[in-house]
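[Q] Does anyone have a clean structure-token version of this?
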Amino acid sequence: MEEIIGKLTVKIVFFKRTSDGTVFVYKMEKGDDSGDIFFNDFYIATYEAMRSEEIWGLGCSIERALESAKAEWERTMGEDYPNPFEEALKKLKEGSNT
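[A] Here you go.
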């Protein structure tokens, strides 16, 4: 049985264009009427390429979500493909948002 216990607001809080696509980080915020959602706000890191966007990581901050995504990319894709999340992390640490 499905039951709606609250709603989340999704906000784009970071993005970085790469040579093959775009890395996005979204903040998932609880709504004011989400009394039955007990977890804290969180972030998800996605990669969009060729009109397809996939979640690669999540965390309690932008940096943690990107680190999670970077590690997942390395596990899944290996070294055969450049890691877009590594580039995004570098830009985040430099203070750049594009």
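[Q] Thanks! Anything notable?
[A] The beta strands are 8-17, 22-30, 42-49, 52-59.
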